[in-house]
Amino acid sequence: MLNITIAEGLFTTGEMGRNIPEQSLVITTESGLVVITGCAHPGIVAIVEQARQMFEEPVRLVLGGFHLESKAEIDAILRDFRSGNRFALYQERIYGRRGKVTTRSFAF
Length: 108
Fold this sequence. Notes:
By secondary structure, the protein is an alpha/beta fold. It has a single domain, classed as Ribonuclease Z/Hydroxyacylglutathione hydrolase-like (Metallo-beta-lactamase, Chain A). It is built from 2 helices and 7 strands. α2 (71-82) links the parallel β5 and β6.
């Protein structure tokens, strides 16, 4: 598993995904990990799991794009996240021809 130290407490997951490879930032904090994604083409669950495996610490906050299209996808992701440790999620998504922006936050 490739991860690169950028600065003290700041890491990259390394390149993930095949069709549209990208990487995410992982920040270590006293209360757990913060994961910052781009578009999350490799899958938000895979990105969060990569961060968990890198440090074996709970993920407390995920922000960025989740690359989700439907309420069913969002519900499935929330079920997966709730089965792990408690943390908050924030999603900002631009989609469609008109570039509509949707912002959602979840705390549990």
